[in-house]
From TrEMBL:
Domain annotation Alanine racemase N-terminal: ranges: 12-232
N6-(pyridoxal phosphate)lysine found at: 39
Required cofactor(s): pyridoxal 5'-phosphate
Designated name of the protein: Pyridoxal phosphate homeostasis protein
Entry superkingdom: Bacteria
Organism field: Zwartia hollandica
Function according to Swiss-Prot or TrEMBL: Pyridoxal 5'-phosphate (PLP)-binding protein, which is involved in PLP homeostasis.
Record-linked InterPro entries: Ala_racemase_N, PLP-binding_barrel, PyrdxlP_homeostasis
Family: Belongs to the pyridoxal phosphate-binding protein YggS/PROSC family.
GO molecular function: pyridoxal phosphate binding
Pfam families (UniProt xref): Ala_racemase_N (PF01168)
Keywords of this entry: Pyridoxal phosphate
Taxon lineage: Bacteria, Pseudomonadati, Pseudomonadota, Betaproteobacteria, Burkholderiales
Amino acid sequence: MLNNTTMAERVAQIRNRIDQACARAGRYPREVTLLPVSKTFDVAAIREAIALGFTRFGENRTQEIAQKAPLLGDCDVQWVVIGQLQTNKAKEVAKFAHELQSLDRLELAEALDRRLQQEGRAIDVLVQVKTSPEETKSGLEPSELFTFLRQLANYQTLRVQGLMTMAVLSEDTQAVRACFAQLKQLQARAREEAIAGVSLERLSMGMSGDFEIAIEEGSTEVRVGSAIFGSRS
Ligand SMILES: *Cc1c(COP(=O)(O)O)cnc(C)c1O
């Protein structure tokens, strides 16, 4: 599938495509961060990516972070949790994660805040919004976003940095684009409210299959797994 390319070559190709998408959108490539998603891949693959200069890695299961983190104790790695999270995993997130991109409900925020206070830590968070009609996609309903952001302002341990979404999985690029455009619009409207303690600079949107469309619609961070590490079997 990856045509015997090296990881360095694949990353260079992705950066090239990011640059071109930025050029089409009249944006600067430095506005877009590439987050490698290492879920299901082993620490050898992560070390290869570290050698290419990456320090942040996306994972969707806290158990997997707990397994990998000790094996990379000699490296300066920051774990970014991107998957749907059960409330009982708050403890692991408070221990291991640098950032959570899938915050989607008050119950989880409350559990995280309690655990983070115990750890004496604070983490960056993005609020995941459901922009796709698919039942399987998680995230907060757009209509609930503003209320939720105001509630989050009360938690000192959760530094709100922006929004995250997953687009509909579809061949219809207009449908995909509409998901990203909706998140961008929600960001603009939420910013008008200027909630104290809540920053909404960041928009995490776009994966291997749709990151160029996401960049054209304003993404500041693309989460790329298979295009860097290979297909997950
Ligand atoms: C797995 C995953 C990704 C990366 O997906 P690829 O298609 O492999 O790039 C991005 N975001 C989330 C939330 C994921 O779970």
